[in-house]
Amino acid sequence: MYCEEVFQKLYQQMPEDTAFCPYRICPLGAHIDHQLGKVTGFAIDRGIHVAYKKREDGVVRLASVNFPEGIQFDLHAIEEHKVGDWADYLRGAAKYLGEKHPLRTGFDGVIEGTLPIGGLSSSAAVTISFLSVLCRVNQIQLSDLEVISIAKRAENEYVGVSSGKTGSVLRGVLQKRPSSLSGYGG
Hints:
Elements: H1 2-11, E1 17-25, E2 39-55, E3 59-64, E4 71-74, H2 88-98, E5 106-113, H3 122-137, H4 144-159, H5 166-169, E6 180-182
Parallel strand pairs: 3-5
Antiparallel strand pairs: 1-2, 2-5, 2-6, 3-4
Helix pairs in contact: 2-3, 2-4, 3-4
């Protein structure tokens, strides 16, 4: 993965680990899950990779292969409202995860999307891959439904995007089965 090379160049060390969340395609019912409709979705072999190394100060520093500017924020001082950059999904996810679990450990990371931005539930894949790293470095165990709920809240409440759970649900459901009919709106 290219994000591992970028991590090594940027931080002058090897990443500790990587996380991955697949993109999804939705051939039937796309964009009706947030209207409580049923949709079909398929996870694909492309998605979001994050190379990371934990840091003990509660700060998240993340560079992107796909965006020129990196982001940094303190897990103990997350803005109440969106800032207007690509990291709003991440801030929202950290905010809502932090409501139920103490977040003491941050990380340095590089995030990489393997296809051009847009569609394919890329925002859900970004949010879920970030949540995966945040949970790992803070030793938090979440069920698939908890991950889905946090990702959906980040998109709907923090970022302000009307979305259903189809993109998020693929993390748990479609990694186990090749396709799924989901009624996860609302």
